[in-house]
Each structure stands twice: as structure tokens, then as C-alpha cells.
């Protein structure tokens, strides 16, 4: 198999505990690599697994797994696990995979899943909607959409996301999370193809020509999949369209690398905000873009 045959790759690095007495990856771990990559495949589709299954009233069960060994991986190797949906039958789905070190396919495999009733584990036809989600992803269709609007339009999903991330996960006092800026801000919301909210953020004009991006929140199981970057880019684009010359934000230190990769630069020192270390970061806008 060739890398070009796959749209999705799940990267990994071989750990010490995965190497056997022959100083190569123990054969059983390759199946774990494939299984772990399946979870990454669902994230790449922007589909939280359990909520997606609940939406369709079924679940996926492994029926058959085969692995073919061509060469060995060793400790500290950087590997990429490629996966694709090869075929969707009446009630089954065939995943084909290959584990690459560079361009070389070390291991290939197949995973057959059966869509079934979760209580009886009896097979059911794969719902057309679920079938379309997989085929659309393999065809390169977008996995999410971003909408912008006022608080009146987006309050319900944005409120739920921010409450989950800031209030419950990060334990920010609820009375500090909600402020008057929500009523005047431009809000952005990312939804997947099932219309499930994934991430949100807002833009306010803090001073003439200066916008502030804030309240960036992405549900935990979708972080690292591009949701946050899509929301951020949408808000930066909106600031540019409004003729603003600069956007600023207060980045949690753990997220500073994310914003730096988007072109933001730190300004000033680290400060405390709601009990969390933050860094102010800025981005100058070219209004001719």
C-alpha cells in the first residue's frame, strides 16, 4: 500500500513498553495501533463517537481483524497509521489500514465492524445518514461549518460549550464567565455535520481599530482536530473585514503555542486571570488582504 491511498493518518511514536525481547514492536501491539487510529478517524470526522452512535440508535462492534506483517518497527520509531473505509455493506463496514515508517508500509490490516443494536448486539442496516458521513469524509467533504452571529442567535450552543469548558472543566466561577460583552460581540460557532456544537469564540471591538478575541472554547474530545483554528480564523477574518488594524487576546499559557502558530505574538508579561496564568498576544491585520 502507498501513503497516497489514505486521507487520514494517526501519528505515533513507539514506546519502550511496546518492544519485545527481539528489540522490535511486539506483534500484538500493531492491532492496538490500528484500533487507536480508529478513534482518531472519528475525531478527524468531527464526530464524537458516543453521541454519534446515540443519534443513530446503534453501535459498532468488531467482527473480524486481520494483520499482515511486512517489516518491523523499533523503539522510538515515528509511525503513521493510515486508515480508510474501503467498503460499506448492508450492516458491515470494512476499514483498511497500513502502518508506515516514512514511505514504507511495515504492517497492513483490515478491521470489519458490524453496525448493531447496542442491547442485543444483533446486526442492523447501516443508517443512510451514517453511511453518508463516512463516504463524504473519504471524498474530502468538509467535516464542519462555522457560523457567526449575535448572542441572540448563538447563545444556547455557545453557552453550553463555555460552561462545559470554563465553568466545569477549568472551574472558573460562573459569575466571572458571563459579562455584558456577550450582548454586543460577534460570536462564532463550529458545528459538525450532525449539527453538534464543537467550538466557539467571540470578537469585540475593545478600542477604535482594535478587536479582542476571547471565550475560545472547544469541547475536550475535539481538541487538536482543527476546530479551534477554524473558529479563530473566522474571527480574525471578521476583524479584518471590519477594518480593524489589530486583534488582541489573552491566551492561557497552555494555549500560547496554538496562537503563536496562527501568527500571534506575545506582548508584556504573564499575568493571572481567573486564577489561570495568561499571556497577552497580538496580531497586526493587513486590511488589504
Short structural summary:
The chain has eight helices and twelve strands.
How would you describe the overall organization of this protein?
By secondary structure, the protein is α+β, with helices and mostly antiparallel strands. It folds into two domains: 3-138, Roll (Thiol Ester Dehydrase, Chain A), CATH 3.10.129; 144-284, Gcn5-related N-acetyltransferase (GNAT) (Aminopeptidase). It contains eight helices and twelve strands. The chain has helices at residues 27-44, 49-56, 128-138, 151-169, 174-177, 181-184, 227-241, 256-261, and strands at residues 8-13, 59-69, 78-88, 92-101, 104-116, 144-149, 186-192, 197-207, 210-218, 246-252, 265-273, 276-284. The chain has a seven-stranded mixed beta sheet with strand order 6-7-8-9-10-12-11, sandwiched between helices. Strand 9 (210-218), helix 7 and strand 10 form a beta-alpha-beta unit. The radius of gyration is 22 Å and the shape is globular. The mean pLDDT is 95.
Q: Note the main sheet.
A: 7 strands, mixed
CATH class of the largest domain: Alpha Beta
The topology string of helices and strands comes to EHHEEEEHEHHHEEEHEHEE
Give the CA-CA distance, first to last residue: 42 Å
Query: So, the CATH homologous superfamily of the largest domain?
Result: Gcn5-related N-acetyltransferase (GNAT)
Mean pLDDT: 95
Number of strands: 12
Total separate domains? 2
Contiguous low-pLDDT stretches (5 residues minimum) are: none
**Outline, from the CA principal axes?**
globular
In percent, how helical is the residue content?
A: 25-40%
Strand content: 35-45%
CATH topology descriptor of the largest domain: Aminopeptidase
Helix/strand-derived category reads: alpha+beta
Known CATH architecture of the largest domain = 3-Layer(aba) Sandwich
Biggest sheet strand line-up:
6-7-8-9-10-12-11
